[in-house]
Amino acid sequence: MDHFTLFYKRLTQLRNKQGISARDMSLSLGQSESYINKIENGKALPSMSAFFYICDFLKIHPRDFFDESDKILQLLRNLQKNL
């Protein structure tokens, strides 16, 4: 799998994990209804600034976007918040 395919799949995974539709996420980011769908289907790539907005929307650090071992990181963050 190439890097772009991994990016598309990861975006879909993170979005679905939060139970957000591609349409709702697109509109929340101030984009057209099909914006996220086009990215996830490999028809477009976000600009760097749009990528940061996507990460902000998903409440993740850009580094964590590429780290699929985020389950442990999320547990640690939740523990830190609760301490």
Describe the structure.
It is built from six helices and no strands. The termini are far apart. It is 67% helix and 0% strand. It is an all-alpha fold and 83 residues long.
Protein topology:
Blueprint: H1 3-17, H2 22-28, H3 35-40, H4 48-58, H5 62-65, H6 70-82
**β-strand amount:** under 5%
Rg over CA atoms, rounded to whole Å, is: 13 Å
Number of strands: 0
Low-confidence stretches: none
The topology string of helices and strands comes to HHHHHH
From the helix content, strand content and strand pairing, which structural class follows?
mainly alpha
Helix content: 55-70%
> What is the number of helical segments per DSSP (H or I, 4+ residues)?
6
Mean pLDDT: 88
The first-to-last residue Cα distance is 40 Å
Largest sheet: none
> What does the overall shape look like?
globular
